[in-house]
Amino acid sequence: MANSKQYDNASSSSSTTTNTSSRPLLRTCLDSLCNLCGPIDSTEYLDAPFRPRNSGEYYIDTHNDESWSFSFGTGEERGIWMNSGDQAGSIMATLVWLLMSYSAVTVTLLTVTKGLPPILGMIYTYLCAMALACHAKTSLTDPGSVPRCAVPMEEQRRESPSHSMCGQCQTFKPPMSHHCRICNRCVSRMDHHCPWMNNCVGAANLKHFILFLIYTWTCAAYSLTLFGWNYFFCASDNCMFNKLVIHLVRPMTFLCIGAFLFTSSMLMNVTYGIMTGIGTIDRLKKKATNTMSQSDEEPIALKDVFGIAGLHTWPFPIDPLFDDYDRVMGYSTPQRLLREQQFIERANSGSGGLPGGERGGSSSRWSDHV
Ligand SMILES: [Zn+2]
Ligand SMILES: [Zn+2]
């Protein structure tokens, strides 16, 4: 009980550290936390001898054992992730859709009025549609919120006896995660909360955010090239813009210049974050305390952003499949640890009868419920 009390006290501040080295304490925490996620016997997974997976042994296991409901929000009980509590963010995200649609309509009108070849207009509309699809995916994807039953991974427990807790969420706080006051959740590998997306950018939706930036940047560069070419090189009536549509083109030019500059800076920001392993929030904190030079973060592997499902999935806003979901998110759940233990035991037995998966080589989705 004393250990349990220590755990409770430690979690009362915003971000505190608690000692979870002793097994009885961890078992107490697990037993209480597991009740939130469903019945599970923590003894089974704690007492099992743990062997880390060898390289090539992996499976996809993103199932959090949470019941699903048709409801919108950022709470753990909500089935569909959507940040509806921030009015400014909702307006800014809607504005993105309005401005992108306005630019697509303008370019379409230019093709209809014979100011542009139809194929060039179709390319722009496709880029716009992809940017908006990525925007919707970024906004409506859980950025990596930490569930109440989150526990440190086996590796983290062996490396360090103490772990941070979030005072607001009352959960284990994974390394590199931050508590977002707008989403009111802790988010794994949180980069920043983006009002234009009306969502946090974290480990699970960074791919969609990067794709949105790339498609928007390409849209802006593409339309500026078209307008520039028309302005400087068009000398005949065949390529002149319609006199009415030109009133839409002028504001769009300023819009594209702004979008080009903004997405360029954001792309450089995100690229720097991936190359250094330091997200936007961490970078600002380190700069404020002048500790940038003391950073020992590792660069983020591209497979931890875009997944391992193959290069053909990278340009599309589909959820990435990670080879080790727990490692990417920075936490595990008792259920997933137990499933991993079973995975390894079956791999050790050499029966080859892994549930729903294959050993090594190809990735496999294993979402068996324990
Ligand atoms: Zn939190
Ligand atoms: Zn947020």
From TrEMBL:
Membrane topology: Multi-pass membrane protein
Main location: membrane
Keyword Transmembrane attached: yes
Molecular-function GO terms, alphabetical: protein-cysteine S-palmitoyltransferase activity
Residue spans of biased composition, Gly residues class: 350-360
Catalyses which reaction(s): L-cysteinyl-[protein] + hexadecanoyl-CoA = S-hexadecanoyl-L-cysteinyl-[protein] + CoA
Name this protein carries in UniProt: Palmitoyltransferase
Organism per entry: Discostella pseudostelligera
